[in-house]
Design brief:
The structure is a homodimer. Chain A is mainly α and about 180 residues long. Chain A is built from seven helices and three strands. Chain A has a three-stranded antiparallel beta sheet with strand order 1-3-2. In chain A, helix 1 (about 15-30) packs across helix 5 and helix 3 (about 55-65) packs across helix 4 (about 70-80). The first copy, chain A, binds a DNA duplex (23 and 23 nucleotides) through helix 4. Chains A, B: InterPro entries: HTH_MarR-typ (IPR000835), MarR/SlyA-like (IPR039422), WH-like_DNA-bd_sf (IPR036388), WH_DNA-bd_sf (IPR036390). Chains A, B: It comes from Actinocatenispora rupis. Chains A, B: One of its GO terms (molecular function) is DNA-binding transcription factor activity.
DNA sequence: TATTGTTATACTCTATAACTATA
DNA sequence: TATAGTTATAGAGTATAACAATA
């Protein structure tokens, strides 16, 4: 499905393994969230909308890592589907609080079940003990990366790498010509 | 960065952890492959172009999981950057073999170094023993998923899940109206 | 003046289909 | 007839900027 690197041996290739597993998850997730506006993203929004206390659009958008304009469109669809509702914030008339409807909460419960089943199937290729170990390791690494704000962190680190390897720059600055 | 699920406890949430780790990798990878046409995808193509025997465009495209039309555009850019070259296949005049230029091979060597450093930094949040364990587990799972052709597999399985959970269907069939 | 949310616009990426040249 | 590659077109997703309402 995805090329394995031949140069340095597949056993070193974190990116390949990560990509394969992640893509499997994404595909399966897309199937599970079919019918939810925005797919997996709508599921994440629904999860946030079930949290307490209710959060504002911008708060949820930044937690989900999406643009606030995208959040507007996504919320329009989710509201139209009857899963969430925009509620005025008594404390600040600029903001709106996002809350799940009863229907949305029921749907989320079913989705959570489906995702649990999905995880089991994805991990079915490993023995039980390894499944637990992998989940634990992944979670610990994710927590560490999340806490370290690896975005800026890794980017600067990588700039160092790039400088160290000193590749001649070959930028594609011009957009692809229209054909 | 990404919402953690509150409902069923973060310790069960494979998707969250997988997403965080994968996104960290993707961001760092984007920084490393800056200057390579197509970013990480161009890097994968370059890796394939260094393999022996040379592969055809379609063969590489399917291994990389991209469309053959995308492969055309990507190859145009990579060839223009002087990293790879299209070579006629003596055995079949319809096909073209993709081979890396000497410049491309040098660039790949540097990229491999950078990726190795990148992996080390991504995994820095874990103790050494856990790093090895995680890589091993991920690789084994990826191999299992890859072999099982999980695409169709998981999709049908997930259809079962969806049927079992029996969520009322709420499709968004109409495209978003132009505004 | 800064911020929340909305809208309009443009751009990028990808998918689909049609075309050619070969087999 | 089927396949490899190319090209054109359309669509989805995303980012950017301008705007109104409120702080």
């Amino acid at each position: 499905m995805v090329a394995s690197r031949t140069g340095s041996g597949v056993e070193e290739d974190l990116g390949w393994a990560l990509g394969v597993v992640f893509r499997s998850y994404v595909r399966a997730s897309a199937a599970v969230t079919d019918g939810i506006p925005g797919g997996h993203r709508g599921y994440q929004l629904l999860t946030a909308a079930c949290g307490t206390p209710p959060a504002t659009q911008t708060a949820i958008a930044s937690r989900l890592g999406i643009d606030r304009t995208v959040m507007t469109y996504l919320l329009d669809d989710m509201e139209h589907a009857g899963l969430v509702r925009r509620r005025p914030d008594p404390a600040d008339r600029r903001t709106r609080l996002v809350v799940a409807t009863p229907s949305g909460r029921r749907r989320l419960a079913r989705l959570d079940d489906a995702f649990h089943t999905l995880e089991t199937r994805i991990l079915a290729g490993l023995p039980a003990a390894d499944r637990t170990a992998l989940k634990s390791l992944l979670r610990r690494l994710a927590t560490a990366l999340d806490a370290a704000d690896p975005v800026a962190d890794t980017c600067t680190a990588v700039a160092d790498i790039a400088a160290a390897t000193a590749a001649p720059v070959t930028r594609r600055t011009s957009p692809r010509p229209t054909r």
